[in-house]
Amino acid sequence: KAGVTQTPRYLIKTRGQQVTLSCSPISGHRSVSWYQQTPGQGLQFLFEYFSETQRNKGNFPGRFSGRQFSNSRSEMNVSTLELGDSALYLCASSPTDGDEQFFGPGTRLTVL
Amino acid sequence: AQSVAQPEDQVNVAEGNPLTVKCTYSVSGNPYLFWYVQYPNRGLQFLLKYITGDNLVKGSYGFEAEFNKSQTSFHLKKPSALVSDSALYFCAVRVLGGSYIPTFGRGTSLIVHP
């Protein structure tokens, strides 16, 4: 099976812009989660989608949003980018609740 | 609120020696515990998990972890370290039922010296 894929791998934006990141989970996996990874804060949970419904949301401002499509592919959007949004954004999928997660390679976002 | 602590930012060990990467957790309810490894410029890879059953869990690449309920710990161990084990290791906890949000530790950098 193909692994979790994320596009784009690298992105450079300026403050105030918005960005959309894409994630394709492993075939058959219905749960998709998003994380923000930074050297100072470690791995922070953004949100989780299961069968197109947002099931959980982490402690991030409303500028961060996401959605999941019927084929389980997911997108996350960050509006009005700030310098502090520079991070590695990781997507992870799992077949069912409670299972281990399979992570994609991440999207490296740099905000200038 | 649930939390995970990895008390050591970095662990140094000589190749061939045993290694331990520490993890303690705090949850309300029964924990599901995981270890992941991250190599440079790559996503996290699953190593092993504890859900129920035997307290000693064996995983990928010769790693194992011991669940200790009384000490709320889930330390990662390997009998003989390899240079290729050098990476960033994350402990994570999940509690199913109710409001579930996975919590990761801040990571421990393992450096294995030749």
- Contiguous low-pLDDT stretches of chain B (5 residues minimum) are none
Return residue spans of chain A where pLDDT drops below 50 for at least 5 consecutive residues.
Answer: none
Helix content of chain A: under 10%
Query: What is the number of beta strands of chain B?
Result: 12
Please tell me how large the radius of gyration of chain A is: 13 Å
The gross shape of chain B turns out to be globular
Largest sheet of chain B: 6 strands, mixed
Overall mean pLDDT of chain A: 93
Distance between the termini of chain A: 37 Å
Radius of gyration of chain B: 14 Å
Percent of residues in helices of chain B? under 10%
Order of helices and strands of chain A: EEEEEEEEEEE
What is the global morphology of chain A?
globular
- The sequence of SSEs of chain B as H and E is EEEEEEEEEEEE
Strand content of chain A: over 45%
Q: Structural class given helices, strands, pairing of chain A?
A: mainly beta
Estimated share of beta-strand residues of chain B: over 45%
Class from secondary-structure proportions of chain B: mainly beta
Mean pLDDT across the residues of chain B is: 92
**How many helices of chain A in DSSP terms?**
0
Find the biggest chain interface: A-B, 21 and 23 residues
